[in-house]
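Teaching assistant here, posting this on the class forum so everyone can see the example we discussed in section. The complex has two components, and the goal was to see what a joint structure prediction looks like when all of them are supplied at once.
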Amino acid sequence: MEVVKIESVTRTYMVGKVETHALRGVTLSIEPGEFTALVGPSGSGKTTLLQLIGCLDQPTSGHVLLNGQDVSRLNRNQRADMRRSTIGFVFQFFALIPTLTAYENIELPLLLVSKPPAERRERVQKLLDSVGLADRADHRPDQLSGGEQQRVAVARALASGPSLILADEPTANLDTANGEQVMATMTRLNKETGVTFVFATHDPRVVKFARRVITLQDGLVVNHNAQAKKG
Amino acid sequence: MIQTLRLALRNIGRNKRRSIFSSLAMGLALALLLLMASVIKGEYGDAIDLAIRLQSGHLQVRAATYDESKTSLQWKDLIENPDQIANQLASLGPVAVATPRLYASGFVTTRNESAGVRVVGVDPLSEANAPYRDGIREGQFLTPDDREGLLLGWSLARRLGLSAGDQVSLSVNTSDGSVDQQEFTIRGVYSTGTSGFDNLVVLLPLAKAQAITGAENRSSAIFVLLKDTSQTDAVIAALQAPGLQVLTWRDLNVLLVETEQLASSYMVFFYLIVLGIAATVIVNTQIMSVYERTREIGILSAIGMHARSLMAIFLAESGLLAIGGIVLGLAIGGAVVAYFTRYGLPLNVENFGITGMLLREHIYTQLTVQDTLRLTLMTLIVTLLAGLYPAVLAARMEPVAALRAEK
């Protein structure tokens, strides 16, 4: 079964009195374990599509199915539950809670699902190791580099064991070296865990990591070819 | 819950100065309320205590026809054989003191001035006279067989330029409706610390007061102090006799009791206004905090935090600010109240314009545990209510809009 299935989805916003069509009827599906890039110019609808898949927003029409469940008309709390159990997010900005340490930021989703303390400790430690930040566990975000913060964000996205990670321009605020390191980490975790990754980007250096590229333009999918991928 | 508090604690620690000032605002409000409550309690507590010890006693036995407003001296309105009744009363367990008193109106005249006074005939040996005996500032207290001496209050003596040993003329209404006048020597000048009382009351030995008013062996009332006020009803039951009435201190100080109840009621509104003003600081702080942390709210929503959990974090922050305020308020308020409990709050009673209420020249604040708990709880509730709006604001934020916010 597809992790993500999107059927004729539209999303229309009102900007003042003007209707803006962010998505005009998108249909696509994403299989488990994919490492997929959403590409397209600014305003093409990449972020809107990620927000709909991530249950942060609801479509104007059409259906969004996650693991076979239609999430298009869930209420606010049901969507929060779905995000908590199924989806991890990595944002363009380093979306960590500034008052919490790296360890505590990663632990946060586990607290929301009431994991026992011992299980939490083990899980967080493992994730810190997997993103190479075991020695930075007690550092707060302002004591970490941008690349380290983004790797903490990746670890946090994986914490509750989601089936889908959504990343919106995850390397946009990073230099090339750190960007490459974050993408390499995500690629490795995709392979190791089998979790599906979908990320929006317009950076060709990032696109090269994707095994499948979906191209959006003016709110429509214009190409969703798989590409031969290295590593 | 613990995690919510941990997050809340760290959040209010982000901007320490702002949090301290917010808590301080609530703390100062609570301190002000504690001071106000303790002043009210001290003022009325003292006034009631003075009224009981100086004027009404815990109980008074009077003739059923006695009209206090007229200070009647007609024999039909007086108690016959008051000593016998007083002795009977004194034998009752809960009664500390029972003594006859005679009340009359009159005026004191010197060469240059005169002043209207309330003449009170007292048994000089009775322990009920302790407030006057202990308050002698000049001369000495009365003796039972003194036929030419009286005691004057300190304020009245000052006003008339008199001191112990001076002569005054006292005119008194009598039982037959006429006025009798005699020269007296001021044996002593007493002070109860209550200008209003000391300015008005002249004390005579009971026998002399009975003689000059023509009341003979009669008194206006039996003044009763109890050891245990919880036994008031039992004593009243034991006192029932035809032709007599028994009045409690509440009956005899109706105005004071009602004023205290009224003051306690309207002060609640005043307390709420003070707390409401201080709470705007909390609202302002928390609204600023919500807008500063909009993107964080989006992140927390994105990882699956429910609106009610977001609300709980902001409410917990308000609660922690309230606790900080309460600690500061109890410390500041406690210190100020302790100072005024010891040294008193100066009160210019002579210019205060309160009639029918005995006030000392200082208010000694009284802070009760009940008032402290009540006001602390009120501060906590008002602060939490103030924090409700920012908390709802945070909880209602759409994740997408929140994530778009500028940092």
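For the discussion questions: The radius of gyration of chain A is 17 Å. The domain at 34-59+75-226 of chain A is CATH 3.40.50.300 (Rossmann fold). Think about how each of these relates to the inputs above.
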